[in-house]
UniProtKB/TrEMBL annotation:
Protein name: ABC transporter substrate-binding protein
GO function term, MF aspect, one: peptide transmembrane transporter activity
Keywords on record: Peptide transport, Protein transport, Signal, Transport
Superkingdom of this protein's organism: Bacteria
GO cellular component, one term: ATP-binding cassette (ABC) transporter complex
GO biological process: microcin transport; peptide transport; protein transport
Record organism: Marinobacter adhaerens
CDD domains the record matches: MbnE-like
Length: 613
């Protein structure tokens, strides 16, 4: 499944690191379903494994205030170099913040207090057999686009086809196992699958945004522009200034406002995003009242900047809200497509030059813990040595894996205890020598070619230079020449989409129910697909097979064990120098904003908040 975020889920329109993936689907024409298909029961919701938590006829999610008042405004900031598109589904351009979440509804709605369950939104019910070889969605008669036109099965088919042929490559990868789409009636649409082992597919099809076929009939989907589009969601674009701000207005006649999955949500009459090119300026603007809510990513800011009378008297609230979602992996990502990083020994060596303990103490006020898993803060993370079912899975590939996978627990290099930076740099030097490098005239060069070991770290946030520069200095002690290039966010997006970098700092998000998205992170088929999220260029047949096993996991326990095996193999590939994580959302907000007492396991979601009258 796609990963959760602090504010609206589904496909991120804010991220500078695009959602991309794998080509490989050609939609089929309408056809009659196999008459021998298993009879299925229409249900109100689906769980990835087991039964959904909420029963048929439930009134609202437990983590919302069903009586939250409607009204007021929410003002937000985006730190970026603007936007040039209102199409969040295209690989081209940079879409405005919030557009995919506020303008477009999906077939099903995600529950934030379960590992992965979906409930009817546009679809009032779902049918899928035990083997999940197909799924049928029955649409609500009341579902409407914002011009009043009903949402039909033809719109669903149109959305699937245009997203997988003209949309972001992410969609082609995500829905690659769909073999046929059949419109069975105006309010009934069926998706057949190439295989019955992809149990997640009925749920992630429910995440698909539904676009109006009649609106796009005489418009060019590929053409980016700033004409406000039409959707079916709770808001429409009421105003914008190109590249600088966008305003969403809540629709009083929103068709889904009384549904259980919408009770207590989307409470603000107006939501406004203003763009800032500098985070320091944005922070001061927040404290001056220019916007209402801030998610703080800087430990230094959290420790030092949220002080003063407004915080003391309660005008602004500073709150660290605990969450239980996987924190994923943030780190320095090696682009293994580049020759300089093609050898895992080199990648491992460089990881010994990053001093997390010094960084955490001197830059982050001791707020973070070291990350040692791609699925950190969850039961999916590999720990210790493999055993039991995880070991059985890994043993299938033993002759293709390093013996260290089985004999050494993965632990990111540390400078605490008996370890120190000096010892770590000695270890790095030994690894580099074993990879064919040596020191000549103070420079690390390849023994045979004489080519210096040098590379560039690409950044778009100036504030991150204080993290990168100590790493650069430690690498210099090894004779490695590192340059740091700071570019604006738009240039950064384009370079990352084209894999035009040696090393980047990247957060690779994960959910509590990994599945089809793992293809675009790690599968060899995405290595050369511009815009894919295979940032490291992972190209390993064992990883390919483990990704498929994760997608095909028949139950929760098997998913956990297969994911741990994948995690362990990725860690031993040394594709990333792991950074750190925090199992809390650090937020600050003006006192007129309120949130429910119960926070779901996935953490803060502003769509559940409201403004005090």
């Amino acid at each position: 499944m796609t990963t959760t975020r602090i504010v609206p889920r589904l496909v991120s329109t804010l991220s500078f690191l695009a959602l991309l993936g794998l080509p490989g689907f050609v939609p089929a024409a309408d056809a009659s379903p196999d008459s021998s298909s298993e009879q299925t029961e229409a249900v109100h919701g689906l769980a990835m494994h087991g039964e959904p938590r909420y029963p048929e006829g439930f009134s609202h999610f437990d983590y919302v205030n069903k009586d939250a008042p409607k009204g007021g405004a929410l003002k937000m900031a985006v730190v970026a170099n603007g936007f040039d598109s209102f199409n969040p589904f295209s690989v081209r351009g940079v879409a405005a913040a919030g557009i995919s979440n506020y303008l477009y509804d999906t077939l099903l709605e995600y529950s934030a207090d379960e590992p992965f369950s979906m409930y009817g939104l546009i679809a009032e019910s779902v049918e899928t057999p035990e083997d999940r070889s197909y799924v049928t969605f029955n649409l609500r008669p009341s579902a409407r686009f914002q011009d009043g036109e009903p949402i039909t099965a033809q719109d669903v088919k149109f959305s699937f086809e245009i997203l997988t042929t003209k949309g972001h490559p992410f969609y082609r990868n995500y829905y690659a196992d769909v073999s046929k789409v059949t419109v069975e009636s105006p309010r009934r649409v069926r998706f057949d699958f190439q295989q019955s082992s992809n149990r997640e597919l009925p749920l992630i099809l429910g995440q698909m945004p539904i676009l109006p076929a009649h609106y796009w009939a005489d418009r060019d989907f590929d053409k980016n522009g700033l004409t406000p589009p039409m959707g079916s969601g709770a808001y429409r674009i009421s105003d914008f200034e190109a590249g600088r701000s966008v305003v969403y207005e809540r629709l009083e006649d929103y068709w889904a406002k009384d549904l259980a999955v919408r009770k207590g949500r989307f409470n603000f009459d107006e939501i406004r995003y203003d763009y800032y090119t500098d985070d320091t300026v944005a922070l001061e603007a927040f404290k001056a009242g220019s916007f209402d809510f801030r998610l703080e990513s800087s430990a230094k800011n959290w420790a030092t900047a949220y002080t003063g009378d407004k915080f003391d008297n309660g005008t602004i609230t500073k709150e660290a809200i605990e969450h239980h979602r996987p924190t994923g992996m943030q780190g320095f990502v090696f682009n293994t497509r580049k020759q300089v990083f093609s050898d895992p020994k080199v990648r491992e060596a460089l990881s010994y030059a990053f001093d997390f303990e010094w960084t955490n103490k001197n830059l982050f006020y001791g707020q973070y813990a070291r990350t040692n898993s791609y699925f950190e803060n969850s039961e999916l993370a590999s720990t210790g040595l493999p055993e039991g079912r995880e070991l059985e899975i890994l043993n299938q590939f033993r002759d293709q894996l390093s013996e260290r996978v089985f004999t050494e627990p993965f632990e990111a290099p540390s400078t605490s205890g008996r370890h120190g930076l000096r010892q770590n740099l000695r270890t790095a030097m030994e690894l580099l020598r074993s990879a064919g490098y040596e020191i000549r005239d103070g420079k690390m060069v390849h023994s045979e070619t004489g080519k210096p070991l040098s590379f560039e770290i690409l950044l778009f946030q100036k504030t991150f230079e204080r993290v990168v520069l100590p790493f650069k200095n430690n690498l210099a002690r090894l004779g490695i020449d590192v340059s740091v290039r700071l570019v604006d966010s738009n240039q950064y997006v384009q370079r990352v989409r084209q894999f035009d970098y040696d090393m980047i700092t990247q957060a690779i998000g994960q959910s509590d129910s990994p599945g089809n998205e793992q293809r675009e992170y790690w599968h060899s088929s995405t290595v050369d697909v511009n815009g894919s999220r295979n940032y490291a260029g992972v190209n390993d047949p064992v990883v390919d097979k483990l990704v498929r096993l994760v997608i095909q996991a028949p139950d929760r326990e098997e998913l956990v064990q297969r994911t741990r095996a994948l995690d362990r193999v990725l860690l031993n590939g040394h594709y990333v120098v792991p950074h750190w994580h925090l199992a809390k959302d650090r937020v600050a907000y003006w006192s007129h904003l309120k949130h429910p007492e119960e926070t779901p396991k996935n953490g803060t979601d502003l769509d559940n908040w409201w403004a005090e009258p």
